[in-house]
Design goal:
Largest sheet: 8 strands, parallel, barrel
Order of helices and strands: EHEHEHEHHEHHEHHEHEH
Bound molecules: 1,3-dihydroxyacetonephosphate
CATH topology: TIM Barrel
Strand content: 15-25%
Helix content: 40-55%
Oligomer: single chain
Number of strands: 8
CATH superfamily: Aldolase class I
Structural class: alpha/beta
Number of domains: 1
């Protein structure tokens, strides 16, 4: 059985006060959510504070990105070992906003995934298609290409320690959530791609959905056979909404 996982990606939002209230708001109720894994990914400057607020809870800390290098002259970048130093357990890699806004290629995403693994961080590998790709009937090939690029770099065995997030770009921040059937279809395709390379990994690997997940639609999405949780943007900035999404995952 795959343990459900719900991840809050705050993106470039919040301040110290919000960090404290969101972390405390979830951590204080986390004893009611023991059968799922919960991760909060604040912006880098708030990792220290978030770590302190989450200390006595079962909620884990994650980062939104990392550099592909270990250290050196990379102004403004943050390394895997720095994330280790803040007790991060997870790190998001290849989010579509970084692929688009920061021109991150499949090769860079693969290298980031590898460096995260080498530092015992669990990569949350984001893949997903644009509206244009979906309209052109290219969803499957896009998603499989993004996934296979990382598999070819890390080896399939690494997927024992990787979480995959399917995030259709047209659903991110748009309130146009993929229907449970649409999401399940692609999750099942992703799992099949893993299965062709390793049956056990395919069975065990968690594949979570992201894109306008809300308390109202989370239950039905996570109830799908191949959807193991959510990567939540906007709704993770409200602790009550995020808690409701976690509860929806719990009852799966
Ligand atoms: P929204 O939940 O705001 O659509 O964002 C999804 C996302 O990009 C999470 O990484």
């Amino acid at each position: 059985m795959r343990k459900p996982l719900v991840v809050g990606n705050w993106k470039m939002n919040g301040d110290k006060a919000l960090t404290e209230s969101l972390c405390v708001g979830i951590a204080s109720r986390s004893n009611r959510l023991r059968n799922i894994d919960i991760v909060l990914c604040p912006p880098f400057p708030f990792l220290y504070l978030a770590d302190a607020c989450l200390k006595k809870s079962t909620v884990s800390l994650g980062a939104q990105d990392l550099d592909a290098n270990t250290n050196g002259p990379f102004t403004g970048q943050v390394s895997a070992s720095m994330l280790n130093g803040h007790n991060c357990k997870y790190v998001i890699v290849g989010h579509s906003e970084r692929r688009v806004n920061n021109a991150e290629t499949d090769q860079l995403v693969s290298r980031k995934t590898q460096i995260a693994l080498e530092h015992h961080l669990i990569p949350i590998l984001c893949i997903g298609e644009t509206t244009e790709q979906r309209k052109a009937g290219q969803t499957e090939q896009t998603v499989i290409h993004q996934l296979q690029n990382v598999i070819d770099h890390t080896g399939i065995g690494a997927f024992n320690d990787i979480v995959i997030a399917y995030e259709p770009i047209w659903a991110i921040g748009t309130n146009i959530t993929a229907t449970p059937d649409q999401a399940q279809e692609i999750h099942s395709l992703i799992r099949e791609q893993l299965r062709q390379q390793d049956k056990k990994i395919a069975n065990d690997c968690r594949i979570i959905y992201g894109g306008s997940m809300k308390p109202e639609n989370a239950r039905e999405l996570i109830a799908q056979t191949d959807i193991d949780g959510g990567l939540v943007g906007g709704a993770s900035l409200n602790s009550d909404d995020f808690f409701l999404i976690c509860q929806a995952a719990l009852s799966d």
